[in-house]
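Our consortium's second objective concerns turning raw sequence data into structural hypotheses that experimental partners can test. To show how far this objective has progressed, the report includes one record in full. It was chosen at random from the queue rather than selected for favorable results. The single chain below, 150 residues long, was entered without modification.
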Amino acid sequence: HCCMAYRTASWQLLDRGVAWVAQDQKYGPRPAQWMRLRHTQTGKLVFFVNHHGPIPINGGGVCGGASVAYNILTLVATKAQAGDAVILVGDFNSDPGSATIRGIESSLHRAYGGGIDFIFSNLEGPALDARSLGNGGSDHAAISAALQLP
């Protein structure tokens, strides 16, 4: 599974879950873990998804990259609610030209991308800050983006 954390002093967890959105031949089912949060001071709502994509890179797993994008966007459409700020992050194991990333970009804006790792949202305008944080002991660099909620 993917890991997610949030500041409990600032955010209230409304709902959470995991959907299996892809499958690869080596590791099997691949998750998109999600949570819906309400900011305790402003009442603003966020639907946050963390995904770890199938391998090999750009392969899209057993059913292909377009199906991965479709399954993730279907998860968002069925679990997020009107007015939610949608933020989708993860190691997609897909580069910018892949069917997975092109499919996701048909509905969400890319806030930042670094190789096979991406941050997407439904928010208008650019990220306030977006960058690579360098290698933190993983097989690729961590990325970060600051987004302005409406």
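The partners drew two points from this record. The beta strands are 11-24, 28-39, 45-52, 85-91, 109-114, 117-121, 129-134, 142-146. The chain has two helices and eight strands. Both points have been shared with the crystallography group to help prioritize constructs.
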